[in-house]
Amino acid sequence: MKFRVQVAVLLKKSVLDPQGAAVERALKSHGYEGIKAVRVGKLIELEVEDESRCEVKTKVTAWADQLLANPVLETFDVIVEPQL
Amino acid sequence: MRGRAVAAVLVFPGSNCDRDCARAWEAVTGQAADFVWHKETRLPDYDLLILPGGFSFGDYLRCGAIARFSPVIAEVKRLADRGHYVLGICNGFQILTEVGLLPGAMRRNRDLLFICRDVYLRVENIRTDFTCGYSTGAIISYPIAHGDGGFSIDSRGLRELQDKDRIVFRYAGPDGRVVAGGSPNGSLDEIAGIINGRGNVLGLMPHPERLAEAILGGDDGRVMFQSIFQTITGATV
Questions:
Q1: CATH-assigned architecture of domain A2-82
Q2: Which H helix or E strand runs over A79?
Q3: Where do the domains of chain B lie?
Q4: Which residues pair with A45 in a beta bridge?
């Protein structure tokens, strides 16, 4: 089975995000006052072939933990969608 | 006969301070350093490994994140475990944190700018084998050149660094004063360089090799190479 996997990496809430702060200021300078917080992260997309969704989730989570995100600074989410 | 210290500079794709490091080592100690490509899987027992600055693997994903999986890293760990000296400068420091030989991680600079200029540092610990040649509280100048140098660590990790005297360099003003928030890059506790618990692995963002000879405009970095050479060989240079 083929899967499309998205790994979303964000700085932890406790970590200062200067990029997010700069984007927030830029958005607010456009006059949109409703914005309460902006954080900038990265999205890593993978195409994976494997037997099952849970198998993919487990493997990609392990890769994310070891390589794709740095647990000292970042958190991540792994979203696995079957590719039809 | 004068003692011999065998040093090597690791080279990753994108390293760009490798020659500067080898040049500084040779200029200070009179002994040539080897260059070791990151694909090497078996190293001789070098006394000192230098992980140089640069942009290993283009800084893709995160600084140092991909270099961490280079084959030579297993040898870096092996030699570090046996007490040999490892010095990580700038990108080399970032790699050492990714490898886990040093704690913490580097964030994007607070002001989002790549900063390339000389900074003042206070030498906080002169009892390390890398800094024994400096005098207590010495104020020195090394250049920095990085975009991701904001040292970051959780509060427990920070306390451990503080309590165990493992903060070796802090960013300071020209008068040597360390002011909260005064680092150029937003580093926690103004930390510019740290050492591991055993005292044989040092990482720092500033570049001692770039000011190691008077002809370069300063030689404060010379003392670091002298110190480590003296520790290894017992000889002064």
A1: 2-Layer Sandwich (3.30)
A2: strand A74-82
A3: 7-233
A4: A6
Q: How confident is the model at residue B1 (pLDDT cuts 50, 70, 90)?
A: very low
A72 touches chain B (CB under 8 A): yes
CB contact under 8 A, A16 and B105: no
SS3 label, residue B174: coil
Nearest to B211 by CA among B225, B221, B203: B221
Q: How many CB contacts within 8 angstroms connect chain A with chain B? A: 37
Token pair in block for residue B32: 């040539």
Residue type, A17: D
Q: Do A72 and B152 touch (CB under 8 A)?
A: yes
- Asked if B209 and B17 count as a contact pair (C-beta separation under 8 A), the reply is yes
**A67 with B153: Cβ contact below 8 A:** no
For the domain B7-233, what is the CATH code? 3.40.50.880
Asked if residues B93 and B193 have their Cβ atoms less than 8 Å apart, the reply is yes
Two structure tokens written together for B114: 């790549």
What percent of chain B has pLDDT above 70?
99
pLDDT tens per residue across span B159-175: 999 999 999 999 999 99
The residue ranges of every structural domain in chain A are 2-82
Residue A26, chain B, CB below 8 Å: the answer is no
Per residue in B30-73, pLDDT tens? 999 999 999 999 999 999 999 999 999 999 999 999 999 999 99
